[in-house]
């Protein structure tokens, strides 16, 4: 009989954020609230998309996968080899970031040609929330994965990592779903079904 790892994890420690024991309570409550919002919000999105056949389109398929990945990001180990992260991260992170920026330059040029001020406002409102998440996501990813190890700072990395792994996945359900008319209808349908 082969013997595997027999260790059992019985506690979770938040190291590097604050060493003062007086702050442990509110840190725990804050992280618990963010994780619960993350898991609940993304689970509701997945349920709404699966429950409404009008949302069985490629866009919502990818939104559902984003929600699933956010839940997995919240519940898994995020450590990675520094060399692999830097070499592959440079390509994997920077390529889509540059494509997104170029796309938004074209979108902005097209929107500025729209004669209606209300139409421009609606497009910029939608694009603005998306760009906020893109900036948070790529800004934190770049500062964590694409930097020389000589610039390492425990405090800075702790804050950036919390934003990257907790705050952004928590915001995604609000930004990508609750501003969408089809998602709002699917959520209403889902809540009526539960009553």
β-strand amount? under 5%
Q: What spatial form do the alpha-carbon principal axes imply?
A: globular
Low-pLDDT runs:
none
Count of DSSP helices? 6
Layout of SSEs?
Blueprint lengths: L23 H28 L6 H17 L7 H31 L4 H29 L8 H23 L4 H14 L1
Helix pairs in contact: 1-2, 1-5, 1-6, 2-5, 3-4, 4-5
Outline the structure in words.
The longest helix has about 30 residues, at about 80-110. The chain starts with about 25 loop residues before the first helix and ends with a helix. The chain is built from six helices and no strands. It has one domain (about 20-195). The mean pLDDT is about 75. Helix 1 packs parallel to helix 5 (about 155-175). The radius of gyration is 20 Å and the shape is globular. The chain is mainly alpha-helical. The protein is about 75% helix and about 0% strand.
Q: Quick gist of this model?
A:
By secondary structure, the chain is mainly alpha-helical. It has one domain (21-194).
């Amino acid at each position: 009989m082969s013997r595997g790892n027999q260790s059992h994890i019985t506690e979770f420690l938040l190291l590097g954020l604050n060493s003062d024991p007086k702050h442990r309570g509110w840190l725990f409550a804050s992280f618990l609230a963010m994780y619960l919002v993350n898991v609940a919000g993304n689970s509701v999105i997945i349920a709404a998309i699966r429950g409404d056949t009008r949302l069985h389109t490629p866009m919502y398929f990818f939104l559902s996968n984003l929600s699933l990945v956010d839940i997995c990001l919240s519940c898994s180990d995020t450590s990675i080899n520094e060399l692999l992260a830097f070499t592959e991260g440079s390509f994997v992170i920077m390529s889509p970031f540059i494509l997104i920026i170029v796309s938004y330059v074209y979108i902005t040029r097209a929107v500025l040609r729209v004669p209606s001020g209300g139409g421009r406002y609606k497009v910029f409102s939608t694009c603005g929330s998306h760009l906020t998440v893109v900036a948070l996501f790529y800004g934190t990813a770049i500062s964590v994965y694409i930097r020389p190890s000589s610039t390492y700072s425990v405090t800075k990395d702790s804050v950036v990592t919390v934003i990257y792994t907790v705050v952004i996945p928590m915001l995604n359900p609000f930004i990508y779903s609750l501003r969408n008319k089809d998602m709002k209808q699917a959520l209403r349908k889902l809540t009526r079904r539960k009553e």
